[in-house]
Specification:
mainly alpha; 150 residues; 10 helices; 2 domains
Length: 150
């Protein structure tokens, strides 16, 4: 989701419909808001954090969305889209309990547990992409190992 779309949606939810009222509510210039919404300008992180706080959004969500929007197309696939649940401030769907973490700690290292935590928060289409990438990397590695003699 683009910054302009996020801002439009959040402003509509707040009942703010005019550019002038929105700029006053966000404490930014109307021109900055206009170019952000209509021309896709990405404000500085400091400004995004201020806007997020005024709109009741998660600042990290807005900043991450902005950075994802800035990266070149050929590397965009390496970044997950910010979770829509962050925008609406809902709790994660399936968080791992402390008991689950303790069980996993006996089997895996901390990084592997963090990967599982993050994976459980990804939408189904994202999970499909992740599994495709893992399968591809596994197959590539297996092929590479078969080529090199022991």
């Amino acid at each position: 989701m683009k910054i302009s779309e996020i801002l439009k949606q959040a402003l509509e939810q707040k009942g703010i419909h005019t550019l002038k009222d929105a700029a006053q509510a966000l404490d930014i210039s109307p021109e900055l808001l206009r170019v952000t919404i209509s021309q896709g300008h990405i404000p500085k992180d400091k400004t995004l954090i201020m806007i997020a706080n005024k709109l009741g959004l998660d600042p990290s969500f807005l900043v991450l969305a902005a950075h994802r929007e800035k990266v070149p197309l050929d590397v965009k696939g390496f970044f997950l889209s910010p979770s829509q649940s962050k925008l609406t401030r809902k709790k994660r769907k399936f968080p791992l309990s402390e008991e689950q973490c303790n069980y996993l700690a006996a089997l895996m290292n901390t990084e592997e547990i963090q990967i599982i935590r993050k994976y459980r928060q990804v939408r189904e289409d994202g999970k499909t992409q992740i599994m495709g990438y893992i399968d591809f990397m596994f197959a590539s590695r297996k092929k590479e190992q078969q080529k090199t003699p022991a």
